[in-house]
What we know:
- Keywords: Transferase.
- Pfam families: FeeM.
- It comes from Zeimonas arvi.
- This is N-acetyltransferase.
- By secondary structure, this protein is of the alpha+beta class.
- It has one domain: 3-Layer(aba) Sandwich (Aminopeptidase), CATH 3.40.630.
- The chain has 6 helices and 7 strands.
- The chain has helices at 32-35, 37-45, 64-82, 97-104, 129-139, 159-172; strands at 5-11, 16-24, 50-58, 87-92, 107-108, 113-115, 120-128.
- Strands 1, 2, 3, 4, 5, 6 and 7 form a 7-stranded mixed beta sheet that branches.
Amino acid sequence: MTPDQITLIASDDERALATISVGFDRDAGLLADSLYPDEVAGLRAQGARLCEFTKLAVEPGKHSQEVLAMLFHIAYIYARRINRCTELLIEVNPRHVRFYESALGFERLGPQRICPRVDAPAVLLRLDLSHCEQELARVGGHRKMAGRIRSLYPLGFSPREEEGIHARLFQLG
């Protein structure tokens, strides 16, 4: 981990189930700067406090959506509530764009390009973290709603659970 990044790992007693890294727009900038410099600079010029989620991996299985939602929620707490970020960026393979748009509310920010880090096509997506905040406050922890709406937010934590997680993360620094 560097001061500009933190990696979160969800695990059971035996193995890692999911990982996500949260990168902050500090001295080193963001990974998205290399492929989408104009788009990222445009958000900075508007006063956005940027972060990016990278290295997202989830073990396939029966509970993978729940694990993804909970890990995303913890990464959101770290980015928004502790570091006061306003905008989240992700670079995703084009085949995953619709999932991020419908499940979390991301919007396209940049066109498809070839990412040299992974030698694969990528699309830059952005999420206004106030949208995430509103959705988590509205449906977070209401797991029964997950079957009725196309969103990961109901699989996240309840507002009360979020407060406890925030307090523990804040104590860790």
